[in-house]
Structure formats: C-alpha cells, structure tokens
Amino acid sequence: MSTLSAFKNFTDSLDEQEQLMPVLFIGHGSPMNGIEDNEFSQRWTQMAKEIPVPKAVFVVSAHWFTRGTHITAMDFPETIHDFGGFPQALFDVQYPAPGNPQLAKDTAALIHTTDVGLAHDWGLDHGTWTVVRRMYPEATIPVLQLSIDYTKPPQYHYDLAKEIYALRKKGVLIIGSGNMVHNLRLVSWDKINTPGYGFDWALKMNDIFKELITSGTHDKLIKYENLGKEAMLAIPTPEHYLPLLYTLALQGSNDKVSFFNDKAVAGSLTMTSVKIGN
Q1: Per the domain annotation, does 194 fall within a domain?
Q2: Residues in CB range of 41: below 8 A, 6 or more apart
Q3: Where in this chain does the record put each Extradiol ring-cleavage dioxygenase class III enzyme subunit B domain (predicted)?
C-alpha cells in the first residue's frame, strides 16, 4: 500500500466512536525526561497502557509559540531539538512518527475563531516528542501539533480549544504539554535531582491550581493573574501554562478529573499532570 493510500485509509477510519478519548495535560519538565528512565517518564508509559490506543495524537506544546494559529500538516514531521546544553544522546534522538495532512485540514476546518495555517516548516518539538515517544515508542501513530498564538489572551485559547472537542469523538488523543508552575529564573539547580522539592509559593500555587481544576472553576484559572503574587511567580510567562487551558476547555460534564506525576522539581517547577475523562 502506498503512503498516500495509507493516509487516506487512516483518515476514512476516523469515525465517531462510543467512548470519548480522554484528554491529558502533561507536565513535561526537562528534555532529559525524554531519555531518562525515571518516575515521570515511567508514568507516561503506564498512562498509554491505561487509555484506549488513539488513532492520532494532537499536542498543544508550550514550545510552539507563534503569531497566529498553525497546525503541522506534513506527512513526516521532523524531530526538533529546540534546546541547548544537554548531552549528545538527547540530540541524537529521532522520533519518526508520521503526520496526517488530511487530519490537519479537517481540524483546521473545525476552528472558526481564527484562520488556521497549515505548517510545513515546523515539526515535533521537545514538548511533544519527549512525552509521546515514551507513550508510543513504536512511532506508528500519527502526531500533529497545534501552535499557541502569543498575541492572544488566555480566554481566547480556552474558547478556541472548545472548537476541537469533536476530535475526542474520533479517537484522537489531545495533549496539552507544559508545566503548571514554571519559573526557570528561580530554579534551585542544586535540587534538580531531588523530585518533590518545591518552594513554599510553588507548592501553594500548585495546590490552588489543583483545587480549582477539581472544582471545575475554570474562570479563575483563565484569569490566573488575579490569584495573587504566587500565581505571577508560578507563571512569569504564559507559554507553559496555556496548554493547561486547552486541556481544561475540553472537559465534558461527565468527565472525571485525576492527577498524576504530582511533584515539584528544583523548587520552582511542578510536574503535576491532569487526566480528564475515563
């Protein structure tokens, strides 16, 4: 079967199904989690075994911050090593998952908030491949990315995410990849290998985020700047936080919420992750 025929057959198979795919927000942390066998990466692997096998994976990554909204639309997205100062072994990693241009077009058509560009000059950045390769190491499931428009406010992103809810009905796993608490300027580097170590303000803010997520109080999470000085320490810039809003916007009325990898790292980061759905 030709590559184009395989893609066509895949797209034709995206019928609605009875069970909604869950939605994940994953605290991805250091790029090293992509190659290290640690408690965080092990939990990503286990999560893939606990949920239905997706027909595609659609990731909103903190590391594709753009003007306008774009979706990767190439047959085979490249593995992007968008970092520096790490061991060569990390740069050597390739994650050769296919893309799906037709699914990119179909998803763009779901979004009416804005015109969506079909991108051929990006790929899978480390907010995506470090996580997804631990979940689906065979690299046979198509993977797409949605960019985050840095010119728009949090409410805009939350509302846009609601427009792709239909993907959950078609077996597509949507992942927001970032970190709830992410302040690299205040990282305690001497504690980088001590999972669970968090500054008081980071732990407090992480607990507040979890309480608001559990209670479904999304409006306060959207207007996070009103949550006090701890919130501004936790979110000095929004790119790692906004993927959480994409995930929360996709919550249905009957979806359960649970947390995993709920630990602080290096004082000013949290790996706390969210599963929405059964």
Answers
A1: yes
A2: 33, 34, 134
A3: 37-259
Identify the three-state secondary structure at position 162.
helix
Q: Structurally, how many domains does the chain consist of?
A: 1
3-state secondary structure (DSSP) of residue 41: helix
Q: Is the pLDDT of residue 12 over 50?
A: no
Cα–Cα distance measured from residue 94 to residue 53, given in angstroms and rounded to the nearest whole number: 22
The answer to whether residues 189 and 30 touch, using CB atoms and an 8 Å cutoff, is no
pLDDT tens profile 25-78: 999 999 999 999 999 999 999 999 999 999 999 999 999 999 999 999 999 999
Find where tokens 């994940």 sit.
Answer: 24
CATH number at residue 43: 3.40.830.10
CA distance 142 to 173: 11
Q: Provide the b/e sequence for 62-74 (b: ≥16 CB within 10 Å).
A: bbbeeeebbbbbb
* Strand ranges (E), the chain: 23-27, 56-66, 69-72, 78-79, 116-119, 123-124, 143-149, 172-178, 257-260, 264-265, 269-270, 273-276
In a domain, 175, yes or no: yes
CA-wise closest residue to 57 among 145, 121, 118, 164: 145
Classified as helix, coil or strand, 176 is: strand
Token representation of residue 18: 């009875």
Residue 210 structural domain: 19-276
Is 10 among the domain residues?
Answer: no
- As a whole number of angstroms, the distance between CA 140 and CA 95 comes to 10
At how many degrees (to 10) do helices 154-162 and 242-249 cross? Answer: 30
Lookup result for tokens 């631990």: 134
